[in-house]
Amino acid sequence: MFADLLHPAARAPGAAAAAPYAPLPQPRARARTGMLLAQGLVLAASVAAATRIGSADVGWTDLGRVLGARLGLGTEPLPPLLDSLVWDLRLPRVLMAALVGASLAVCGTVLQAVTRNALADPYLLGVSSGAGAGAVTVVVLGFGAGTLGITGGALAGALLAFAGLLLLLRRTGLDSVRIVLTGVVVGQLFTALTSLVLMASADADTTRAVTHWLLGSMAPARWDAVVVCAVVTPLGLAAALLCANALDGLAFGADTAASLGIGVRRTRMLLLVVTAVLTSVAVATVGAIGFVGLIVPHGVRFLAGPLHRVLLPHAALAGAVFLVWTDALARVAFAPREVPVGVITALIGVPLFLLVLRRRGEL
């Protein structure tokens, strides 16, 4: 049904202007499966290659020995220092980059359909600012400790920001333009609260560390945080896939979606909650990383087409590969100093953001 709607010949006059992006022909099922398998292999190779990259060289044989010994395959273990470098530091970091990249790309794909705004990303609703404020409050004021404590604080802040957004929109409804404007206001509010909490702390070292973390960094990633993301990210992707047909309808507007039997308000609420949870977990573990949810869906849409049951898994894999290599670049570009990965994504994302604006005729 939605494939017919998305075909250029089936659009009603004026529908092209209403859609947030130009529809593309859908690749055949076999080609789509081949593309997914190819992306999966690229992701696996990227994770392995990025694990070797760093200040100390790790060979392919060394990497295989570490994995074999840790997984009980009977291979001879490496010396403890090198084993800990690979297993306790690099591998969790690379896996975290893959999981966060997948989460942010899925969030961006969902939000661009729900808001009918091609410039939407996971930080559109101010949820990331709320998550950052919650996590910083836990760290600076000592309300909790450990990964679960910080994640809980971030989730509480994200849901508070989300509740504030809904409260401001309770009379006007979830109109795409109002969502954008209200999300900016909510984001600025929680950014100010984060600054206020930091200023209230007399510990200069903590303030400096938290400020660096808020720019986005995979350095704090450990196995407990990876486990949390490894549970939340697939669940969020599965929830989005269950709503794939609804996302196709919402991309053409609430009226079109309602005429196709979609419960617009209920579906929007569900999807906004999913993006809030995914974003809060990402911010709690690695800080704020922008532009991944903006640029990855646009790039993948050229290859996978606009149908969300196809687009979502492709976007997740592409986002994972993108952030794995972005983090690797952040580690080695200015070695021995490490650049926050959020800085690298911004340097890449800003020109692409301007390109999207130019293609839409808004620049």
Quaternary structure state of the chains depicted: single chain
CATH H level, superfamily name: ABC transporter involved in vitamin B12 uptake, BtuC
* CATH fold assignment: ABC transporter involved in vitamin B12 uptake, BtuC
Number of helices: 16
| Percent helix | over 70%
Determine Rg (CA atoms, Å): 21 Å
Q: Which structural category do the helix and sheet elements fall into? A: mainly alpha
CATH architecture: Orthogonal Bundle
Largest sheet: none
| Beta-strand content estimate | under 5%
Mean pLDDT, to the nearest integer, reads 81
Number of domains: 1
Low-confidence segments: 1-25
Distance between the termini: 35 Å
Reading off the top of the CATH hierarchy, the class is best stated as Mainly Alpha
Question: Could you please describe the fold and organization of this structure?
Answer:
By secondary structure, this protein is mostly helical. The chain has one domain (93-359): ABC transporter involved in vitamin B12 uptake, BtuC (Orthogonal Bundle), CATH 1.10.3470.10. It has 16 helices and no strands. The chain has helices at 2-6, 15-18, 29-52, 60-70, 80-114, 127-141, 146-168, 176-200, 204-214, 223-242, 244-250, 254-259, 264-286, 292-304, 308-332, 341-359.
Based on the model shown, name its key terms.
73% helix; mainly alpha; 363 residues; disordered N terminus; ABC transporter involved in vitamin B12 uptake, BtuC; globular
In short:
With about 375 residues, this protein is an all-alpha fold. It has a single domain, classed as ABC transporter involved in vitamin B12 uptake, BtuC, CATH 1.10.3470. The chain has helices spanning about 1-5, 15-20, 30-50, 60-70, 80-115, 125-140, 145-170, 175-200, 205-215, 225-240, 245-250, 255-260, 265-285, 290-305, 310-330, 340-360.
